[in-house]
Amino acid sequence: MKPKRREKTKKVGPSKRVEKASSALQKIVADFVEARAPKNTLLTVTDVAVSQDLRYIVAFVSVYPDVGDVSITKLLNADYRELNELIAKQADFKYMPKVVFEIDHGERNRQRIDELLSQD
User: Fold this and answer.
1) Which residues, other chains included, contact 51 with Cβ-Cβ below 8 Å and sequence gap of 6+?
2) Which CATH number fits domain 16-118: 3.30.300.20, 3.40.190.10, 3.40.630.30, 1.10.260.40?
3) How far apart are CA 102 and CA 119, in angstroms?
4) Which of 26, 39, 45, 55 has the fewest Cβ atoms surrounding its Cβ within 10 A?
5) For 30-77, how does the pLDDT look when each residue is reduced to its tens digit (9 = 90+)?
6) Domain map of the chain by residue range?
């Protein structure tokens, strides 16, 4: 009896190429955000989501103290040309990725959950 052929298993999750690009981009974006942070405000890049074709990036940023999410994202998204220059200098991509900044509400949600749990 012939042994059965092994079925190919599909990889779930990003490829090594995307993971490598994501970690490099997180550092570049973090340096960019740090330089653009308003006084008395701590901006932290918590995650960078990269599309499989490396053309789109969503950078998640946490803000402390909570000074206005819309103004921070507008500030960061307005300087996209400078960020593109940084990416071009520090990374080698076939296409220049489009970067969009989003506020990461995870920390705020965790604090709210802690408040609710401590009320009991």
Assistant:
1) 57
2) 3.30.300.20
3) 31
4) 39
5) 999 988 888 888 888 998 999 988 899 999 998 877 766 778 888 888
6) 16-118
